[in-house]
Amino acid sequence: MVTFQDAQFVVIIGGWSNTISALYIEEHIYYYHGTLLNSEYKPYWISWNSYEVSVGLGSIQGSGVILYGQPQCPIKVIDATFASNFGETLDYRVNQAVHSEQHDTKRLLLNDPDAVLNRLRILEEKFAQLGTPTQTGSTYIIWGRKQCPNNTSELVYSGFAGGGGVVETGAAADYVCLTPDPVFNKTSGTDHGRMYGAEYETNFWAKDSHNEDVPCSLCRSSYATTVMIPGTNVCNNGWTRQYYGYLASGHHGHPAASAFVCVDISPEYLRAGSRDSDGKLFYDVIAKCGSLPCPPYVNDYPLTCVVCSK
Ligand SMILES: [Ca+2]
Ligand SMILES: [Ca+2]
Question: What is the DSSP-derived secondary structure letter of residue 212?
Fold first, then answer.
């Protein structure tokens, strides 16, 4: 079957089990009754102008006409498509080049310079619509640092770690990295939800880290994927380590729920934050054997952590 773009006309050779061939133009159908296809390649020609379409047997245009039709509207051929229907395999040659179409696939035959230009124009329009290509990337928060790791990511902002109060039973569980540049609209609220700052609540993190306030930074990596892996400080082959350190969470005895985050191995403090104010707290996390397999884990060892990108 030969169809022309926008279905201005369609030629079917050897349709209806090789008994009928047809030319469709607009709502008209012109038939040729007889067997046309066999196991050999046979030449056909198709000829058209604005007001008529002819299809013939053989290599000489104008002779051996089997189908002829006249459209009501002037036709303009932009391109041509070869296709098979009903899952049949169609083998054909164009200028002695052998092609094969299977399972209703279609092949564009660019036989007209206008067709190439038209396709190019469509592509250019589509590219223009796409705009700037989307860049891949991913973000992560580095806990305990005021900047992002050198050479592996860019700083989005450096801010303050925060969260719900650890002694409040309905506190939000997660740690958040608050912007250093808050913007407020209203000047009063209902005091149900609360946001506190955060402290390292032990000297586990560093000498005299207890009660120091915790910085954090939002970093953007050019890698598409970034993950935090608890329990190790190395990345798999092919992954880039952003930072590593020790796993942190809230205190198991506190009423508030918490979450696990990865604190950098070299934690920094917010300026003038050594006063004991509590709020959201960072504690080290130790392994507890049982349902946690030991080995490889070791009871009461603090868990490391790593953030890796790929
Ligand atoms: Ca403090
Ligand atoms: Ca404290």
Answer: P
Distance 77 CA to ligand 2 centre (A): 79
Q: How far is the CA of 186 from the centre of ligand 1 (A)?
A: 27
* 137, 223 contact by CB (below 8 A): yes
| Cα separation, 304 vs 262, whole angstroms | 8
More confident residue, 132 or 179: 179
The span from the CA of 54 to the CA of 178, in Å, is 74
Own/partner contacts of 96-99, CB < 8 Å, gap of 24 or more, are none
Q: In angstroms, how far is the first alpha carbon of the chain from the final one?
A: 49
Q: How far apart are alpha carbons 233 and 241 in whole angstroms?
A: 9
- For residue 209, the SS3 value is coil
How far is the centre of ligand 1, averaged over its atoms, from the C-alpha of 277 (Å)? 5
CA angle at residue 244 from 262 to 300, to 5 degrees? 65
**Residues pairing with 83 in the sheet:** 106
Query: Separation of 211 CA from ligand 2 center, angstroms?
Result: 4
Of 74 and 196, the structure prediction assigns the larger pLDDT to 196
- Rounded to whole angstroms, the Cα distance separating 47 from 62 reads 8
pTM score of the predicted model: 0.59
d(CA 48, CA 55): 9
253 CA → ligand 1 middle, Å = 20
- pLDDT tens for 48-105 read 887 888 999 888 888 889 899 888 877 777 677 777 777 777 777 776 666 666 655 5
Q: Over the stretch 25-58, which tens digit does the pLDDT of each residue have? A: 877 888 898 888 887 888 888 888 878 889 998 8
Ligand nearest to the CA of 165: 2
Rg (CA), the chain: 36
CA of 211 to the centre of ligand 1 (A): 4
Q: Is 194 helix (H, G, I), strand (E, B) or coil?
A: coil
| Ligand 1 centroid to residue 196 C-alpha, Å | 11
Q: How many whole angstroms from its chain centre is CA 26? A: 42
